[in-house]
Structures are given as structure tokens and as C-alpha cells.
Automatic annotation (TrEMBL):
Highest classification ranks of the organism: Bacteria, Bacillati, Actinomycetota, Actinomycetes, Kitasatosporales
Amino acid composition bias (Basic and acidic residues), ranges on this chain: 1-11
Region (Disordered), start-end ranges: 1-30
Domain A-factor biosynthesis hotdog: 42-127, 200-266
Coiled coil ranges: none
Superkingdom to which the source organism belongs: Bacteria
GO molecular function: transferase activity
UniProt name for this protein: Adhesin
Length: 329
């Protein structure tokens, strides 16, 4: 399971005035819903809320205005990427949580567990390295079980679609969650080992690096809490799912070894929690792809000899680096 929960604590980032909301033309039909809050998006800081307005268009469909240009803490794109993978994942997460909480009435007293997240991005509609301007999204949700929800999301900017996703998550009561977690419910992060050089994994600072050297190619040690609020902005009892997704992207970037590597699809599947009390090894290997000139990398997490999650990332050569295949394709 990938957690999408939050136990809000104070943030160390200094307070600043709220940014004005980016707005688009409202949907042709729909009921404007209350303004998104950090609580409903499971963030601590208001600046990290990426949804500015949203509407209910039917029992199963919602529309959103998004703003990626604010003073949020999320990471920039890697050198060859057309989009920030962290902003993509946070957009999927936040819109899904809003639909669950405010749209479907699932209270904040529940804990959310994401089973899978898959998305594709368009390399020729880049948002990285520029102010992308207003964005809109639509979400269609289907209850696939009594406590599970499937959500499909489409995001547009500059007149076209650049992101599509599908994800599945469930929820349990806090009492059930405490029983499920047992002694781990009180677990907290341990100090992170020394990181890989940021440039090796496509990052800028050491606090952004989710991987530590493991002494052999294609293998790393997962760094738990690096102190960066983009990765951990609240107390948790296991490594958050979006930290695992970030670690997978960093591993794929390092494994390919080409700064022109531009991710175009990501598929994350969770199998069990990644705990703080034992090393979690991140391992990458090449897998087949049908996309011409592309490379695909499967990244898995292994803890106590068991696979905790898997992530397949497919990438092409960034249009910003010219035509041709990714190195090694």
C-alpha cells in the first residue's frame, strides 16, 4: 500500500502572504465547491496546495483549476524531463484526496492507502523551466469496492492534454489502521545515510536526494527522512508512497545515465509498507519497451528480502536535446 495520509504538524517554512489563485474560465456546468484546504489535500502548508478552484459536474465527475507556479516546496524537473514528476504525482494525489474527502464525504478520520498509480505525460507539451500558466483537470471516479475508489484524471494546459492518469486507493478507520500497523504505528524515521551526488540522480541539493550509495551499479539504499518538506512535511510511521515514487525516478535517471532522459510513463504498484527499522534496497534493471528510441527501467524496493513496491518508468530522448534515441536504446 502507498500511503496518502497526513498527520499534520508544524512546518519550518516561513509564513508568506497567500498567493492569488490562478483562474481559468469556469466549466460550462457544475457546482463550485468550497476552496481546497491543506487538510483536505493532506499537506501542512497552504502554499503546497496545487488546486485553486474545483467544481462538481456530476456524481462521478469533477473539474479543477490548478496552479503549479506558486511558492510550493516541490522539486523542479530533472534536466531532461518535460515535467516535474513530483508536481505530477502531487496533482494526482491532491485531486484524488479532494474528491474523496469533500466530494464523496470520506472523513479525515480515515487513513488513505493507495494501491497503484499510473500516468503518462506528453514530452512535446513541456511545463518544466517555464511558467506553464493556467491548468485545468477533470477527474472521473468509480467506487470499485466498499472502501476502494478508482480515479482517472486528465490535465490540460496551453490548449492540450499533457497528463493522463489512473489510480486506485482505499481507506480504513483509524482503529483498523492502528491494529493493522501494530507496534509500527509509533515508528519514526531514523537519520538518513549520506546521499549520492545530487547531479547523479537529477537533483540539485542533497536534501532532495532519496538514494544513498550501495556499492554496486543499479543498486542503492533508500534514504528515509532527508529533512526536505517536499518529501516529509508531517509525522509518519512508514516511508510515504510519494517518497518511493521519487526514489524510483532518481534511480531510473541514474541507471540510464543520460541527462536527455525524459520520462513519459510511470506505473507504481505497492505491495507492503516500507518501514523505518530496516534497510530498503532500491534496485533498477532494464525492461523491454515497444516505444521506438525509448528505454524502460523497472525499479523495485526490497526490504528484509521482500519486494515492497515496483515502478516501471519509460522515457524518450528529451525534445530539448534534439532528435534521436535515448543513450543505450
Amino acid at each position: 500500500m502507498i500511503d496518502v495520509m497526513s498527520r499534520d504538524t508544524e512546518t519550518t517554512r516561513p509564513a508568506v502572504p497567500s498567493r492569488p489563485a490562478a483562474t481559468c474560465a469556469p466549466p460550462s456546468a457544475g457546482v463550485l465547491l468550497p476552496a481546497p484546504t491543506p487538510s483536505f489535500t493532506h499537506r501542512v502548508d497552504e502554499r503546497d496546495v496545487l488546486v485553486t478552484r474545483w467544481w462538481r459536474r456530476s456524481e462521478t465527475e469533477f473539474s479543477f483549476d490548478l496552479d503549479w507556479s506558486g511558492d510550493h516546496c516541490f522539486f523542479d524537473a530533472a534536466p531532461g524531463a518535460a515535467h516535474s514528476e513530483m508536481l505530477v504525482a502531487q496533482t494526482i494525489r491532491q485531486t484524488g484526496l479532494l474528491v474523496a474527502h469533500a466530494g464523496l464525504g470520506i472523513t479525515r478520520s480515515h487513513e488513505f492507502l493507495m494501491d497503484s498509480m499510473r500516468y503518462e505525460t506528453h514530452p512535446h507539451r513541456p511545463t518544466a523551466g517555464r511558467a506553464p500558466g493556467p491548468m485545468t483537470a477533470t477527474a472521473v471516479c468509480v467506487r470499485s469496492g466498499r472502501r476502494t475508489l478508482d480515479i482517472g484524471i486528465t490535465v490540460r494546459h496551453a490548449g492540450g492534454v499533457f497528463l493522463t492518469s489512473s489510480s486506485r486507493f482505499g481507506w480504513v478507520s483509524k482503529d483498523v489502521y492502528r491494529r493493522l500497523r501494530g507496534a509500527y504505528a509509533a515508528a519514526r524515521p531514523v537519520p538518513a545515510p549520506a546521499p549520492e551526488p545530487p547531479a547523479l540522480v537529477g537533483r540539485r541539493t542533497e536534501s532532495e536526494v532519496a538514494l544513498a550509495p550501495a556499492g554496486r551499479p543499479g543498486r542503492w539504499l533508500l534514504r528515509g527522512d532527508t529533512g526536505n518538506p517536499a518529501l516529509f512535511d508531517h509525522a509518519v510511521d512508514h516511508v510515504p508512497g510519494l517518497v518511493l515514487a521519487e526514489a524510483a525516478h532518481q534511480a531510473a535517471y541514474a541507471f540510464v545515465g543520460d541527462p536527455a532522459f525524459c520520462p513519459v510513463s510511470t506505473a507504481v504498484t505497492a505491495r507492503q509498507y516500507v518501514e523505518f527499522d530496516a534497510p530498503c534496497w532500491i534496485e533498477a534493471r532494464e525492461v523491454p519497451t515497444r516505444r521506438r528510441g525509448a528505454r524502460a527501467v523497472e525499479v523495485v524496493g526490497v526490504q528484509r528480502g521482500r519486494t515492497t513496491f515496483s515502478c516501471v518508468i519509460e522515457g524518450v530522448r528529451s525534445p530539448a536535446f534534439g532528435s534521436g534515441p535515448v543513450s543505450g536504446a
